[in-house]
């Protein structure tokens, strides 16, 4: 499947082509992470034969996914320019983040409140980490409601979900093209299509 097509399922569609070009241009290994991390994303500089690596969590809403992706690419760009000489979220990184956010502002991709929160974040010299609360809160507002419908392939392993008929399952490993799922009451095994739509009840990895 085409890279931009995949990116479009996670990012605002208008943002996907440029992120696709960055992945090529910076020769970056870009991974959509299915692990639930406390961090939204991660950047690793080239190390022992491996190139730039970025991973972004799969379960972010499209705006949070884009802001996180640009955040990590700003780390990459800052690394290319300064290596160890620049602090992770120092002035060099901030300048690059601002610059790299610009094309998405020009395309008018963000709703006004997110744009406002990003601008505030970029112009506040004290805001130095990824976890700026105003920005975080404005991004969280666009998360889908917790009980919304998702496809089986997007669920983390061991997630508990419900079908329309009320039966409850736990998601297990993938067997060839389908996912093994166990009906909680009967303990019987069923195979689900990756795109079957279900309602998530609880994420066991999340405690
Ligand atoms: Zn960071």
Automatic annotation (TrEMBL):
Q: Which InterPro entries match?
A: SprT-like_domain
Report the domain of life of the source organism: Bacteria
Q: Which GO terms describe its biological process?
A: response to stress
Question: Taking every annotated instance into account, which residue ranges of this chain make up the domain SprT-like?
Answer: 27-108
Q: Please give the name of this protein.
A: SprT-like domain-containing protein
Native source organism of the sequence: Mucilaginibacter xinganensis
């Amino acid at each position: 499947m085409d890279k931009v097509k995949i990116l479009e399922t996670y990012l605002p569609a208008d943002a996907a082509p440029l992120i696709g070009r960055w992945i090529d241009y910076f020769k970056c290994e870009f991974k959509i992470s299915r692990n639930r991390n406390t961090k939204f994303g991660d950047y690793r500089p080239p190390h022992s034969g491996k190139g730039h690596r970025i991973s972004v969590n799969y379960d972010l809403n499209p705006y949070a996914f884009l802001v996180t992706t640009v955040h990590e690419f700003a780390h990459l760009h800052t690394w290319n320019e300064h290596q160890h000489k620049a602090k992770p979220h120092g002035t060099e990184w901030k300048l690059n983040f601002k610059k790299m956010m610009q094309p998405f502002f020009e395309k008018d991709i963000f709703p006004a409140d997110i744009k406002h929160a990003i601008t505030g974040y970029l112009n506040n010299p004290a805001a130095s980490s990824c976890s700026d609360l105003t920005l975080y809160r404005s991004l969280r507002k666009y998360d889908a409601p917790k009980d919304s419908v998702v496809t089986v392939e997007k669920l983390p392993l061991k997630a508990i979900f419900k079908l329309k008929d009320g039966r409850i399952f736990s998601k297990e490993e993938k067997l060839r093209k389908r996912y093994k799922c166990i009906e909680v009451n009967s303990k019987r095994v069923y195979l689900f299509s990756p795109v079957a739509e279900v309602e998530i009840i609880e994420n066991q990895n999340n405690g």
